[in-house]
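step 4 of 6: structure.
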Amino acid sequence: MSKNIVVTYGSFDLFHIGHLRLLARAKQYGDTLIVFVSSDEFTQQKGKQCLLPYEQRAEMISGCRYVDKVFTEHCWEQKIENIETLNVSTFVMGDDWQGKFDFLKTYCDVVYLPRTSSISSTFVKQSMRIIANIN
Amino acid sequence: MSKNIVVTYGSFDLFHIGHLRLLARAKQYGDTLIVFVSSDEFTQQKGKQCLLPYEQRAEMISGCRYVDKVFTEHCWEQKIENIETLNVSTFVMGDDWQGKFDFLKTYCDVVYLPRTSSISSTFVKQSMRIIANIN
């Protein structure tokens, strides 16, 4: 039987427990978890500003025990090609993207996972600002 | 031949690339890497303020592919007992602690590893404050 391959995509700035839990749950959908980390250029295109450069964001994801391979996400359009080339069985995203990738259901299973409530890079940034002002 | 066991200790607040690289290098000294994460009470005793509670700091360390086991650091005094009980061969710390744990050389090898230059929780906090003010 061939291995079930799972993919997910994201910027993964300031690797936090919300990311970790999402990756742990994503891995449960298959044998191999491949993560596409957004390039700095693509992150900017998405209107986001990352604190950490691509190399460090990718290194942090590679250090996660649930992740088997890390590639780069350069643009919105690459997903279908990635799914076909890598023979992906399940595409996973956080449910803040609910419905947005249903067009991929022609190619593989599409799963939206609940985000860890109130944990996000934005939350971490806000908490840090409070701490930074205290110290 | 028995397995070589490596230990390290720390708060590991806001898990970052400096932590990741230190754990990767620590693992190279043996077969099993055990990390003692400081409890919230002990962190306060050390005069540090963590953004994240013990449970989340420990969960992040458990998610790291180089780490085999996570325990709790409750006090300064437990190290010798840990080393003897766990049959530790190498004690590893960042070189910001250079010389401070030489008294453990009676019990096992003691290694101080270079910290990733200019990467620390303090650096991350400062960068976050800048970003928080921009956004």
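step 5 of 6: annotate
 - Chain B has a mean pLDDT of 90.
 - Helices of chain B lie at 17-27, 40-45, 54-62, 79-86, 121-134.
step 6 of 6: archive
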